[in-house]
Design brief:
This protein has about 300 residues and is of the alpha+beta class. It folds into 2 domains: about 120 residues; about 140 residues, Rieske [2Fe-2S] iron-sulphur domain (Rieske Iron-sulfur Protein). The chain has 6 helices and 11 strands. It has a 5-stranded antiparallel β-sheet with strand order 1-2-3-4-9, with no helix packed on it. A 4-stranded antiparallel β-sheet has the order 5-6-7-8, with no helix packed on it. Strand 5 and strand 6 form a beta hairpin. The longest helix is centred in the N-terminal third of the chain and has 42 residues. The radius of gyration is 35 Å and the shape is rod-shaped. The structure holds FE2/S2 (inorganic) cluster.
Length: about 300
């Protein structure tokens, strides 16, 4: 009867260990797939929510797998062992040698421990690979062609100014104190190219303060519409003071003085777009913006030289 009980207990233990092995393997497998998935999602454009979920699964899989492994396969976390007199008894030493040999054999021939160790190694390697992802966010360091992305827009000399509806503009179409949002004609209306055309009052512009003193037509001057603080569209115009105002954090730019900063958190003026009139009387750009558009970044001035 006692033998039968012992056999049943051994069977139960073996079944529990098999079940734990499968669960731990499943956890490590999930971790591997999640880490690789994270890499793929990042490289194909990224999705913040999905990346967060995958990162949780990658780390959670390793944690859960190790937890199952330690609790069930290695044994209870608290072990009380009577302190035997030293040295160990002969039968204990023999038992240890036997256990040790069987463990070594198991690892050598590919037993459970080896299997789980391999999966754990795979999970660690996948996670290590996924953790290289933040390096890719440091910028286009591996793509020299991408370096100009932040410095160029769709504007170029001869490109007509058009409204969002595509209407081409002549100087006389904008009354004094009026403003209009303009884009380069025949472009994809790229967000970084949007600009604001302002018709200032006669003689109000101090040309000496403009990056392009010649890039003004009869009181019409154009600046980037993207705030140099955090990129909001600078769409409010207080005509009386010739001030463009960003609605996000109230940066104010003086239109008649090169869009210099009057107040607010931004640190630099709005870049100017030089304009002229073509043979048919339409407003055109005569070059690119005077500086990179949008919020400042670490190599703002370096890029202008490259
Ligand atoms: S984004 Fe314009 S002031 Fe902050």
């Amino acid at each position: 009867m006692a033998d039968q009980t012992t056999t049943d207990e051994r069977d139960d233990k073996a079944r529990a260990e098999d079940r734990a092995t499968r669960i731990a393997a499943l956890c490590f497998g999930v971790s591997i797939l999640a880490a690789l998935g994270l890499l793929v999602v990042y490289l194909t454009g990224g999705d913040t929510q999905l990346e967060g979920i995958l990162l949780t699964l990658a780390f959670g899989g390793v944690a859960a797998g190790l937890g199952v492994w330690v609790r069930v396969l290695i044994g209870p976390s608290v072990i009380v062992e009577p302190r035997d007199p030293m040295p160990s008894r002969a039968e204990d030493r023999a038992g240890f040698e036997q256990d040790f040999d069987s463990t070594v054999d198991e690892v050598k021939v590919g037993g459970r421990r080896r299997f789980l160790l391999q999966l754990l190694g795979g999970a660690g390697a996948s996670l290590g690979l996924a953790l290289t992802v933040p390096l890719l966010s440091l910028g286009p360091i591996f793509d020299p062609n991408a370096r100009r992305e932040l410095f160029d827009t769709s504007w170029s000399a001869g490109r007509r100014l058009v409204t969002i509806e595509g209407e081409e503009l002549r100087p006389e179409m904008l009354a004094v104190d009026e403003i209009a949002t303009v884009f380069p004609a025949d472009s994809d209306r790229a967000a970084d190219s949007q600009a604001v055309l302002v018709h200032t009052r006669p003689g109000a512009i101090d040309l000496s303060t403009l990056p392009y003193p010649d890039g003004v037509v009869d009181g019409l001057v154009v600046y980037s519409k993207i705030c140099t603080h955090a990129g909001c569209p600078v769409g409010l115009y207080r005509a009386q003071d010739a001030e463009l105002i960003c609605p996000c954090h109230q940066s104010q730019f003086l239109v008649t003085a090169g869009a210099k900063v009057l107040s607010g958190p931004t640190g630099r003026p709005l870049p100017q777009l030089p304009i002229g009139v073509d043979d048919e009387g339409f407003l055109v750009a005569t070059g690119e913006f005077s500086a990179p558009v949008g919020p400042s970044f670490w190599n703002l001035t370096q890029g202008q030289d490259s």
